[in-house]
Amino acid sequence: MATVAPNPDGVSCDVAVCGGGLVGATLALALAELALDVVLIEAHPFGTFGQPSFDDRTTALSNGSRRIFDALRVWPLLEREATAIRRIHVSDRGRFGFARLDAAEQGLSALGFVVVNRAIGAALWRRLEDSSVRILAPAKVRGMQLVDGRQRIECDLGAQGSASVAAKLAIAADGAQSALREAAGIGAQTWNYDQTALVTNVLTQRFHDHVAYERFTPSGPLALLPMSEGRVGLIWTVTPDVAQSVVQANDAEFLARLQDAFGFRLGRFMRVGARQLYPLALTRADEHVADRLAIVGNAAQTLHPIAGQGFNLGLRDAASLAEVLADGRAQQPDAFDPGDGLWLERYREWRQADRTNIVRFTDGLVRLFAQPLGPIKALRDVGMLAFDLMPAAKGALSQLSLGAAGRIPKLARGASLL
């Protein structure tokens, strides 16, 4: 890794990745494996935990995501921090519907792994330090325009002045409010769920036994994910007014309300950590490519956390784009242009089905379990029970971690890009 010094003549590179969060940092590492000249532009100082996605939230990594990290030599730095999900239990509070998924029944050692985002960020930084990726940080993007066949990204460096990065290919990995996407004139559609995710860690009386719970309650879905030291990561979806009252409650009141919502399957809830709130919405970019621009991760789509698919989908964006560029480099070793429209179109076509299916799946769950009508509740409970009795359906759902449709990226299968 090298830092990019301000240069009045600007900086040139093959690929500029804008956004050093979890997806952007992973993609930068993957592209460096292809011997491409990569500049990573990040708004926060490199090596600090100011990056918003490197917070104390927990992420459920699918098996495909674990393989991506393994192929990029990130997983060995994360493994001790990861807790395996060996079973999943889904239920409808106060009703008869439930469904279970067991890793052993699917021939898997785990259905996924729970890791704190802060730990993922630290592991990615360590790998970036040993890579050829050049870092421009802290740098805030002020604009981007196509000049002489390159995307020229203008950055504000604060006290250090400004910098210009000219890239054959620019990659927007800068979140739901993407500055690069906006600079390219690409809009996004947003549907506000009028829900808020309350996120925290809780210590339980009984050991979680590596079971992840998803319980649907009248106020919204409640997920408990197994963590280290006997803790569970809580993602509790509620309406904004309820969120404020719950987050402001003292610890004893909060734990009592959580106990009432979840029950005693894990015994009593003993202690709770710091609580944070995150408004929830579905955002979809109108386009996922433009002239010498590719859009990945939350800049392309942000999802409700109900099924834990958002980050895994974004990581497949990164793995797919890296593979398309690896194939292009192999086909044109002497004249490879990563921003050529041919490769961008292949990336767009590849990701379309997976994105569409995961968005529909996640959004459909949100709407299904938000229905207050008795007949709808009865039908979904019957559906869960039917799923619980169908091995083929369970097998199909367990494969969702590798992608919802079409070709699975090499990295998600544990294979090298080269």
Keywords:
single chain; 418 residues; FAD/NAD(P)-binding domain; nine-stranded mixed beta sheet; 33% helix
Can you walk through the features of this model?
It is a single chain. This protein is an alpha/beta fold and about 425 residues long. About 35% of the residues lie in helices and about 30% in strands. It has helices at about 20-30, 65-70, 75-80, 115-130, 180-185, 240-250, 250-260, 310-330, 340-370, 375-390, 390-400; strands at about 1-5, 10-20, 40, 60, 85, 85-90, 100, 110-115, 135, 140-145, 150-155, 160-170, 190-205, 210-215, 220-225, 230-240, 270, 275-285, 290, 295, 300. Strands 1, 2, 3, 9, 10, 11, 12, 19 and 20 form a nine-stranded mixed sheet that branches. Strands 6, 7, 13, 14, 15, 16, 17, 18 and 21 form a nine-stranded mixed sheet that branches. Strands 4-8-5 form a three-stranded antiparallel sheet. It starts with a strand and ends in a 20-residue tail after the last helix.
